[in-house]
Amino acid sequence: YEYIERYDPVLFKRIQKLDTMNVLPKDIRIISAEPLEKPYDAIVKAYTTAEYEISVKGENLTDFYNKSREFLDKNETFSVMKKTKSGEKETDIRPMIKEYCFLNDTVNLGVSCSAQENLRPELVVENLAEKFGFSIEIVSILKRNLYKNGSIYKF
């Protein structure tokens, strides 16, 4: 979450108590908070890449992973229909895919998450499955990390 107001450390400690008071949903925890560094006035402008862990299920996951890895390793154009503010438009999402790893029932993706370009991880998995004719179901998506200026913010 992003807060416009600046919170002093004492006030933040009070906010953290929400975590122990069972006010938040059970899967949401306040771990830490940090002020945005200048010149950023919004969190979306501070971070450039998000790392996701996507749990999937489907038949022939190994074949799906092999074909996906082979395709992404070639660094070829990966055009998909992407929703924009003005509708849908064909976009090459390959430059927005920074990292990828396929293992067991998990797809790990590092994708662009800046104000200039933002890529939803499910768009990658769904379009790879469609491209190669696999029926893949996304079970869950977990945002693991945010990266900014070469440093990482771990969840």
Walk me through this protein's architecture.
- 26% of the residues lie in helices and 34% in strands.
- The chain contains four helices and seven strands, in the order H-H-E-H-E-E-E-E-H-E-E.
- It has helices spanning 9-20, 43-46, 61-73, 121-132, and strands at 49-58, 79-84, 87-92, 97-103, 106-112, 136-148, 151-154.
- The longest helix is centred in the middle third of the chain and has 13 residues, at 61-73.
- The mean pLDDT is 82.
At a glance:
The chain is α+β, with helices and mostly antiparallel strands. The chain contains 4 helices and 7 strands.
Write the layout of secondary structure elements.
Layout: H1 9-20, H2 43-46, E1 49-58, H3 61-73, E2 79-84, E3 87-92, E4 97-103, E5 106-112, H4 121-132, E6 136-148, E7 151-154
Antiparallel strand pairs: 1-5, 1-6, 2-3, 4-5, 6-7
Fraction in beta strands? 25-35%
- Helix share bin: 25-40%
> Could you report the average pLDDT, rounded to the nearest whole number?
82
Q: Point out poorly predicted stretches.
A: none
Overall shape: globular
Strands of the largest sheet, in order across it? 4-5-1-6-7
- Which series of helices and strands comes N to C? HHEHEEEEHEE
Radius of gyration: 18 Å
Q: Please report the number of helical segments.
A: 4
**How far do the termini sit from each other?**
12 Å
Q: What is the number of strand segments?
A: 7
Oligomer: single chain
Structural classification: alpha+beta
User: What kind of sheet is the major sheet?
Assistant: 5 strands, antiparallel
